[in-house]
């Protein structure tokens, strides 16, 4: 953290040009580390080899405050991103629920149309039987009104079968 305090480092190096503990090729001695722990300011002392090393203790309080402000800002940004991610996840879940509901409605409509197609196919099959060239007692009767009776009976039976199918679907829970 002391190496990040560039203004004090530059001022110190410009003032006397001596080696400091900021240089990468000079490591602090055990004496300097003990002095740093005791909280001493700048002083001179020996490193055990007969050379004097100037001890420099930069003011890192401002740097700590600056770093703490950056960490608070990064933490706030992280919280905002986390909240945004939760919002996106909730929105995605909501959209999936809406899509599932629409898919269920389409499936129910498909069931209704398939049932209607089945019932209409049965009515068409019965009409086809009556249209064949076979002899049945219905053909021997008078033809007045018989066509409309048979047509009405087929349409009524088709509607009744369709309604019975819908009631069965409702009871079994296929349709809502």
Automatic annotation (TrEMBL):
<keyword id="KW-1133">Transmembrane helix</keyword>
<keyword id="KW-0472">Membrane</keyword>
<dbReference type="InterPro" id="IPR002523">
    <property type="entry name" value="MgTranspt_CorA/ZnTranspt_ZntB"/>
</dbReference>
<feature type="transmembrane region" description="Helical">
    <location>
        <begin position="111"/>
        <end position="134"/>
    </location>
</feature>
<feature type="transmembrane region" description="Helical">
    <location>
        <begin position="146"/>
        <end position="169"/>
    </location>
</feature>
<dbReference type="Pfam" id="PF01544">
    <property type="entry name" value="CorA"/>
</dbReference>
<dbReference type="GO" id="GO:0015095">
    <property type="term" value="F:magnesium ion transmembrane transporter activity"/>
</dbReference>
<keyword id="KW-0812">Transmembrane</keyword>
<dbReference type="InterPro" id="IPR045863">
    <property type="entry name" value="CorA_TM1_TM2"/>
</dbReference>
<feature type="region of interest" description="Disordered">
    <location>
        <begin position="1"/>
        <end position="53"/>
    </location>
</feature>
<protein>
    <recommendedName>
        <fullName>Magnesium transporter</fullName>
    </recommendedName>
</protein>
<dbReference type="GO" id="GO:0016020">
    <property type="term" value="C:membrane"/>
</dbReference>
<comment type="similarity">
    <text>Belongs to the CorA metal ion transporter (MIT) (TC 1.A.35.5) family.</text>
</comment>
<dbReference type="InterPro" id="IPR039204">
    <property type="entry name" value="MRS2-like"/>
</dbReference>
